[in-house]
Amino acid sequence: MRKDLLAALLAAAQVACVAHLQRPGVELLSAEVSEVDIEGATVLCRLEVENPNSVELSVVRLAWKLSVGGRPVAEGTLPEPTRVPANGRATVTLPARVRFPDLPGLVGRLAAGQEVPYELAGTAAVEGPLGVIDLPFSHSGTTAHP
């Protein structure tokens, strides 16, 4: 009986912590091509993660997808765990492999300097005082390629 009560109290504490944890902000700072070959390109996406919480966030896993022009073009995972200080910011670089066959019509729009909508979305697994919590994130906007 006491074990059940303790388990219920711990579960309630976890729910209370999640309810008070604010979602981190994510902003795409840059997307730079680092390598090009006949099949595609490796793009380094630099993100700034803002932690609005009064506790440090330790991101232990991160899975993401990048869509450009409404089409999925890349996805990936965080190469190593990252810490975001309490009420602070951290810059994270995510490598993405983009295959040219996945980009029909997009290259022409970029070459013409047209604005192209993008969306970066995913889930970050953040370690807190009571365990790991999955937090979804997304950022969208438009970009023009000179």
What labels would you give this structure?
146 residues; alpha+beta; Immunoglobulin-like; five-stranded antiparallel beta sheet; three-stranded antiparallel beta sheet; disordered N terminus
If you had to describe this structure to a student in words, what would you say it looks like?
There is one protein chain. By secondary structure, the chain is an alpha+beta fold. It has a single domain (2-144), classed as Immunoglobulin-like. 17% of the residues lie in helices and 58% in strands. The chain contains two helices and eight strands; from the N terminus they run αββββββαββ. The strands form two sheets. Strands 3, 4, 5, 7 and 8 form a five-stranded antiparallel beta sheet that branches. Strand 3 (57-68) and strand 4 form a beta hairpin. The longest helix is centred in the N-terminal third of the chain and has 19 residues, at 2-20. The protein is elongated.
- Identify the CATH architecture: Sandwich
Shape: elongated
Termini gap: 67 Å
Q: Which sequence of SSEs, written as H and E, runs from N to C?
A: HEEEEEEHEE
Number of domains: 1
Show the helix and strand layout:
Layout: H1 2-20, E1 25-36, E2 40-50, E3 57-68, E4 71-77, E5 82-84, E6 89-99, H2 106-111, E7 115-128, E8 131-144
Antiparallel strand pairs: 1-2, 2-6, 3-4, 3-5, 3-7, 7-8
Task: Write a short abstract of this structure.
This protein is of the alpha+beta class.
